[in-house]
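Q: My labmate handed me this sequence with no annotations at all. I'd like to see what the chain might look like in three dimensions before we decide whether it's worth expressing. Could you predict it?
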Amino acid sequence: MLKQKQIEEYEVNPYTMFIKPTVYGSKVYSQIYELEDEFLSPFKPIEIIKKSCEYFSSSFEGRKNGTKQLIGITHKVPIAIDPSNYIYFFPTTSPNRSECIWVSHEHVLNYARFAPDQTQVTFQNKQSFIFPISYSSFENQLLRTALLRTKLMQRIGQTERKSFYLLNRPKLIQSFTETSPEYLHDPFQKE
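A: Here is what I predict for the chain of 191 residues:
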């Protein structure tokens, strides 16, 4: 078992698998599980998610509104914390509830029904955990996050293609005219 370290500051990163609330004294802290490490933070999971959005130059509300605009989801919204590094998290329940766990979409390897309201989730590092969420709800959250990733990647790809086209269009037109037969014909050359 990995030794848990207490930390003050934490931003979600490509190694973060999930963040779950834990009662520590009279406060709600976060247990943070990474691929090869565990941490205990004095902040609630939602506070870490919000701070991580800000770290990657957005706000939680901005990311939430973006998800709503892109895929129409308004409740238990998956969040694109940092799309360029494939950091997408989804909540197991309403983020306003103290028992909400945030799960990284990237690290879920497999999941199975464990009990009526529990799902066993296996992560990329082969570790398994039981989450207090029904199988169908977990699957729904996973699929919503996959849809968000797909739509966002499509949009980023379209923007890149448009940029490429706009940057290279004059060159393409110029190249075409330089290789056309009229351009290659030298009027001063004797035939």
